[in-house]
Amino acid sequence: MADFDTGTGKTLGIYTSALGLLYLVFGLIEIFGGSGEQVPGDLFGGFALVVIAATYLIGVKGVLRGRHQGLSLLIGGLFLSAVFGVLYLLIIGADGLMYLLGEAEELPGLVDLRPAIWFFILSLPLVYTARKLTKRITW
To answer: Distance (Å, rounded) from C-alpha 61 to C-alpha 108?
Structure first.
């Protein structure tokens, strides 16, 4: 029996699986050395992306069936996406502050925006949908 509408679950599941696959592909690219300036080679950052991907992808089956167990994994993935996305945004802000203080020679540009930041922005529509689906749940 479904806990919420399966039509919403299918839409949410497709979006979640696409986002999870993006996290997985870019995480593996980062682990294996990166791809130029756009995707830096970062072992621990790549593992973080793979963990986020696993969290999203494990929850897809439950979300497609309209179950709250899948939704809880989706919310966990959203939390991890937010933590790493905001962390990398703070790093860029700190680099910009270093430039303003005269400690750095160049201002960080769009090249410094890591994939985790872009994926965090892509995951924001899921926040609204997850909030709408959990509004009536009694904790």
So the answer is: 40
Give the Cα separation of 16 and 10 in Å (integer): 10
Contact by Cβ (8 Å): 45, 31: no
CA distances 122 to 18, 20, 69, 98, 99, Å, are 10, 11, 22, 28, 28
The tokens for 114 are 């890591």
pTM for the model stands at: 0.86
> What whole-number distance in Å separates Cα of residue 21 and Cα of residue 118?
14
Task: Please give the C-alpha separations between residue 3 and each of 7, 67, 112, 139, in angstroms, as whole numbers.
Answer: 12, 5, 41, 15
Closest CA to 21 of 112, 127, 122, 132: 122
In this structure, how many other beta carbons lie within 10 angstroms of the beta carbon of residue 124? 12
Q: Which tens digits make up the pLDDT trace of 80-133? A: 999 999 998 898 888 888 888 888 777 766 556 788 899 999 999 998 888 888
The helix-helix angle for 68-100 and 43-64 (nearest 10°) equals 150
